[in-house]
Write a structure and sequence with these properties.
The chain is an alpha/beta fold. It contains 14 helices and 15 strands.
């Protein structure tokens, strides 16, 4: 029964709390037992706050017993990527250069909103140093492993959150995504990840990539993503770039389906490589939308590969972050981070202005594209999880070689979801990406739920 409780969705837990079939203390104990049994082999958590979680669960239980839950997430076991501050807990960002000494006196916006709604925080999940790469390992916390095959990467940078979601070690998991960091580990671990429109979820402090880094849920069901987004999209004055306040329940309309929607499907975006087996799975997933009544057309969006301008922005931001770290501490850092930061020093102000102009052109292009198409479908990643200890697979020679479907939509600030869409012969999950024009979370959630309703997501045993 403990495992059954741990694998429930947040939506199911709320129903059980309301009917008094389960209590928040029972649910939290079940998830903590799952962490104790499984995390030693997977390494999802930097730390687990066992006593804090149980104390929060007891307070929640008292509220439910009085019939007065304090919000939409009251008593739901949840996790925080170690990028985001949380009161009383050190935020180390995967780095030995950050001192754990406090005071740690504030919550990041998503943490604050979830806490106000009664979420039970279990601890902080692992990430690579400052979130710089698409796998999760760091000098601080070591290597995090894929729950489907422990010799493969879980992806990154929100790798610990993806492991927690897949294995019942947290119902609601806060991730962030500057170049794919929600979608990469969601795809590799077979969970649902949503990178909301930039500014939809207030952020503070900004991550490695200001202007590109989005916040969103990493969960086991689309309904849980809609529930969590409803909470974390509430406003926070510390983010001056947040969207205008729209207190909206994103669960409303979730079952409206895709009939009549205009959908473009691009297997390569016109310039990417895709493993044939993954390509077949994504082709099949795209056909499901046609079966559900959408108009699906094979259509590349028609933009040039934006990798070079994006790299200028990415590597130079890494160089700027490194400048804030004392020289005597740099020997503690991931050598890969130091190498890429050195690349970043090569870019001039003129290079960055030209990169920004390319970004402007891409954003305008995609705005025009979505005048004709409600949604764009692509593979989420061109391959399944590769071996541990690498920043990129052997077949592809550099980090952004294997991310052609992720970073363009950080540049454009669009929302995008990673949707599990089957398994290869090795038993590793593949994923479909659903992209919409900015602000259309409703369409992406509807489409994701429509697909999930006929192709339910499977989690590892």
């Amino acid at each position: 029964m403990t495992d059954e409780i741990a694998m429930m969705s947040a939506t199911e837990l709320r129903q059980n709390y309301r009917r008094r079939r389960l209590s928040p203390v029972e649910a939290t104990k079940a998830v903590l037992a799952r962490i104790e049994a499984r995390d030693g082999a997977l390494n999802a958590f930097r730390f687990v706050a066992h006593d804090d979680a149980l104390a929060a669960a007891r307070r929640s239980e008292e509220r439910w017993m009085k019939g007065a839950p304090c919000g939409l997430l009251d008593g739901i076991p949840s996790t925080i990527k170690d990028q985001w501050p949380a009161k009383g807990w050190p935020t180390l960002k995967g780095s030995r250069t950050v001192s754990p000494e406090g005071p740690w006196t504030e919550d990041a916006p998503a943490v604050a909103r979830m806490r106000e709604h009664g979420a039970v925080f279990l601890g902080k999940t692992n990430m690579p140093e400052f979130g710089w790469k698409g796998v999760t390992d760091s000098p601080l916390t070591g290597v995090s492993r894929n729950p489907w095959n422990r010799e493969r990467t879980c992806g990154g940078s929100s790798g610990g959150a993806a492991i927690a979601a897949a294995t019942g070690m947290g119902m609601l998991n806060i991730g962030s995504d500057g170049a794919g960091s929600i979608r990469i580990p969601s795809a590799f671990c077979g969970v649902y990840g949503l990178k909301a429109t930039y500014g939809r979820v207030p952020a503070y402090p900004y991550g490695l990539l200001p202007g590109c880094s989005h916040t969103g849920p990493m969960v086991r069901t689309v309904a849980d993503a809609a529930l969590m987004l409803t909470v974390i999209s509430e406003p926070d004055p510390r983010d001056w770039l947040q969207l205008p306040e729209e207190r909206r329940d994103w669960r409303i309309g979730l079952e409206e389906g895709v009939r009549g929607l205009r959908i473009a499907y691009s297997r390569t975006l016109g310039h990417g490589w895709v493993d044939p087996e993954v390509g077949v799975l994504v082709d099949e997933a795209a056909r499901v939308f046609e079966e559900l009544g959408a108009y699906v057309e094979e259509k590349d969006p028609g933009f040039p590969d934006p990798r070079a301008p994006f790299e200028a922005f990415y590597w130079s931001n890494m160089a700027a972050t490194l400048e804030g770290i004392p020289a005597e501490k740099r020997a503690l850092m991931d050598p890969g981070y130091l190498e890429r930061a050195e690349y970043g020093r090569r870019y001039s102000a003129g290079d960055l202005l030209r990169a920004w102009a390319a970004r402007d052109a891409l954003g305008r292009h995609m705005n025009a594209f979505h005048e004709s198409y409600d949604l764009l479908l692509t593979p989420q990643l061109p391959l399944v999880a590769f071996e541990l200890g690498k920043t990129h697979p052997d077949r592809l020679g550099a980090m952004f070689d294997w991310l052609p479907f992720t970073f363009p939509f950080n540049f454009t600030q669009q929302l995008a979801a990673s949707v599990p869409c089957g398994f290869t012969g090795e038993g590793l999950p593949a994923a479909l990406q659903i992209v919409a024009g900015r602000y259309r979370e409703d369409l992406v959630l509807r489409a994701s739920r429509a697909y999930e309703s006929v192709r339910p997501f499977k989690m590892p045993e």
